């Protein structure tokens, strides 16, 4: 194994910080950061404990957002607000925070298909879809149209986590990511890519680029000039496809389809959703199967992005029963994937420095793990759990070892997405 002085120093810092943090009665981080969790109240329909409850299709829990401010010298500062921002567990468990930490952006869409969340009964008299929303409604704080196609801009520095702007889209926005230029945000939807910026506390559309392949998930390259996607129809009747796009002058253009090379023992399935590009932009990890109750152990195909036409060139076999999301450690050696499970959820620790990448081990985690992020320094890993309604914490020890912390962060019911950014310092 190759060693580098920087990574050795980083490992020692992580170890020392973990030891010090363990002495404190609360969770700390080396630098001030903010976590944003979106929580889908519709999940209460799926996780009710009695037969009578499971047959009840009435949504009784509002969507919510939870903001957590963390730092080196104080307990977590946590605020949960219900009934202001719609969100859905049907999609990519990521969102966006502005480069200065001031604003959060959450995407919601109205597609439910043939899932467990179809044909639900929503509270009478409240808006549900775009058609139910009047222009005057958009300025109200209490507004959670569950089946709307909406972007919500949230002031994370406000004591009440005020929603300062809402945007309605015609197609289904799958999720939103910050662009590496720290000025723009990329929104992927079922029929278009959108580029937005924040100006005067509002989301301003910069461009709109049509695409015709449907959309399940996307990620932006570290340089900001490429987009990798998983795509397919929402009926889940045929295998997913992957595609490679350019992003130049705020326009998104299709370049090529991403194929699986001959001899690579894996395949795309109709339940292939989540992907994430590595921190150096050289490869991406892809979920072969993101279904919750899959009886099979899912693969993680690895896409080589250094090729003129990116392709799946290797695979990590049989990692877990449904892969939901990924996080890359700053050391460039380790990645972690959440493995879906209702009663026995896990996270999988991967060695991505090895050629090919390989599975190292599993750790127990809260049920239905969704969002997952490392701290900037790499000393902690945060994993959001839907059924436990909390963010679990793992301490990083050395280059590949994670230890589950007994402390956790309580959040709103039905966690579905997680993102992390710097703490807003004010003007």
Question: Which terms summarize this structure?
Answer:
427 residues; mainly beta; Methylamine Dehydrogenase, Chain H; eight-stranded mixed sheet; four-stranded antiparallel sheet; 28 strands; globular; disordered N terminus
| CATH top level label | Mainly Beta
The main sheet comes to: 8 strands, mixed
Order of helix and strand elements from N to C terminus:
HEHEEEEEEEEEEEEEEEEEEEEEEEEEEE
Architecture, CATH level 2? 7 Propeller
- Specify the number of helices: 2
Architecture overview:
This protein is mostly beta strands and 427 residues long. It has one domain: Methylamine Dehydrogenase, Chain H (7 Propeller). The chain is built from 2 helices and 28 strands. It has helices at residues 5-22, 51-54, and strands spanning 33-39, 64-70, 77-82, 96-97, 103-108, 150-155, 163-168, 173-178, 184-189, 192-199, 202-210, 217-220, 226-231, 241-248, 251-260, 275-277, 283-286, 298-304, 311-320, 323-328, 334-339, 345-351, 358-365, 369-374, 380-385, 390-397, 401-410, 415-422. The strands form 6 sheets. It has an 8-stranded mixed sheet, with no helix packed on it. It is globular and about 55 Å long. Mean pLDDT is 91; it is low at 1-10 and 16-21.
């Amino acid at each position: 194994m190759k060693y580098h002085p920087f990574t050795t120093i980083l490992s020692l810092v992580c170890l020392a910080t973990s030891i010090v943090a363990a002495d404190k009665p609360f969770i700390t981080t080396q630098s001030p950061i903010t976590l944003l969790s979106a929580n889908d109240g519709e999940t209460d329909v799926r996780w009710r404990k009695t037969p009578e409850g499971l047959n009840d299709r009435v949504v009784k829990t509002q969507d919510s957002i939870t903001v957590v401010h963390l730092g080196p010298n104080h307990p977590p500062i946590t605020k949960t607000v219900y009934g202001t921002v719609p969100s859905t567990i049907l999609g990519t468990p990521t969102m966006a925070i502005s480069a200065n930490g001031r604003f959060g952006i959450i995407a919601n869409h109205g597609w439910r298909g043939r899932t467990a969340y179809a044909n639900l009964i929503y509270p009478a008299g409240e808006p549900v879809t775009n058609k139910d929303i009047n222009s005057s409604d958009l300025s109200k704080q209490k507004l959670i149209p569950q089946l709307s196609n909406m972007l919500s801009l949230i002031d994370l520095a406000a004591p009440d986590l005020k929603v300062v702007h809402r945007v309605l889209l015609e197609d289904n926005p799958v999720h939103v990511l910050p662009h590496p230029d720290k000025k723009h945000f990329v929104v992927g939807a079922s029929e278009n890519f959108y580029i937005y910026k924040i100006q005067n506390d509002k989301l301003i559309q910069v461009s709109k680029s049509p695409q015709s392949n449907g959309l399940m998930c996307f990620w932006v390259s570290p340089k900001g000039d490429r987009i990798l996607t998983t795509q397919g129809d929402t009926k889940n009747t045929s295998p997913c496809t992957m595609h490679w796009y350019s992003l130049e002058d705020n326009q998104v253009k299709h370049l090529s389809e991403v194929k699986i090379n001959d001899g690579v023992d894996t395949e795309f399935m109709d339940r292939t959703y989540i992907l994430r590009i590595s921190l150096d932009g050289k490869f991406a990890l892809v979920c072969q199967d993101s279904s919750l109750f899959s009886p099979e152990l899912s693969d993680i195909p690895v896409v080589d992005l250094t090729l003129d036409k990116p392709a799946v060139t290797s695979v990590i076999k049989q990692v877990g029963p449904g892969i939901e999301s990924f996080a890359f450690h700053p050391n460039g050696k380790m990645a972690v994937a959440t493995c879906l499970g209702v009663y026995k959820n896990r996270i999988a620790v991967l060695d991505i420095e090895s050629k090919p990448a390989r599975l190292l081990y599993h750790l127990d985690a809260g049920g239905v793990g969704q969002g997952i992020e490392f701290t900037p320094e790499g000393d902690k890993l945060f994993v959001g759990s839907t059924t436990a309604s909390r963010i679990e914490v793992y301490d990083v020890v050395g280059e590949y070892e994670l230890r589950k912390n007994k402390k956790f962060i309580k959040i709103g019911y039905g966690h579905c997405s997680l993102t992390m950014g710097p703490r807003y310092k004010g003007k």
